[in-house]
Amino acid sequence: SRNKMKLLAIFISSLISIIIIFILSNIISLNIKRSEQQEKMRALEDIIDYKSNIEKEINSRIQLANGYLAFIKTFPEADAEFNLKYVENLIDKKDKMIKNISVLKDTTIVWTYPQSGNKSAIGKDLSKVPIQRESVLFVKNKGTGVFQGPVNLVQGGIGFISRIPVYDNKNKYWGQVSIVINGEELKNELSNFQKDKELRISLYNK
After folding, report:
1. Do 178 and 162 form a contact (C-beta atoms < 8 A)?
2. Phi, psi dihedral angles at 204 (to 5 degrees)
């Protein structure tokens, strides 16, 4: 009958509409998932770039500490003035990232550069400073370098500290060389990168 044919046509039309809607939904869902995957990949690439930037900023400064360590081993009897001249030539004066370089005899700071703003640190036994004690004693007892941060510095401010053990000509532990990276400058440098990449990343001391 005509009514049955009409109902069948409506049913088929409705079924086709449902199938089309289902197919479109799946296509949209796949596109969303593909877009989400692409977004995740872009975010991962940005994080890898971010990690690379951190390592670049930090490692370039740590190399300066290694250079100073080589100087100390070559000229173990160098006086404060000779040390000062060498470090002034070693460090780019425009580099605001380096807060200071210090020499520790055993675990006590005996020399630091620059001296202005850091004199209060001279004579400090860092094994008695709770937040730095563990890393200082680790370098002394294990004979290996460490990187610590962010930490509250004894001379004020926040910093990241690289410590390298120093041995005398009899291969006996003598002390340490430490280089402090200015936490605020590092944060500002990396904040610009985060803004460019639209990332929200936090640095913390693990």
Report:
1. yes
2. -145, 160
Neighbouring C-alpha atoms within 13 Å toward the C-beta of 192: 7
Neighbour order of strands in the sheet with 108-113 = 108-113, 98-105, 173-182, 158-167, 146-152
The gap between the terminal CA atoms of the chain, to the nearest Å, is 79
- Phi and psi, residue 106, nearest 5°: 60, -105
pLDDT digits (tens, 9 = 90+) for 54-72: 777 777 777 877 788 888 7
Reduced to 3 states, what is the DSSP secondary structure of residue 150? Answer: strand
Position 78 scores a pLDDT of 72
Max mean pLDDT among 89-98, 101-110, 144-153, 186-195 falls in 101-110
Tell me if 104 sits within 8 A of 176, measured CB to CB. yes
Q: Which of helix, strand or coil describes residue 206?
A: coil
Write the pLDDT tens digit of every residue in 8-27: 555 556 556 666 665 666 66
* Residues 148, 132 contacting (CB under 8 angstroms): yes
Q: Which of 136, 132, 98, 97 is nearest to 114 (CA)?
A: 98
Alpha-carbon radius of gyration of the chain:
30
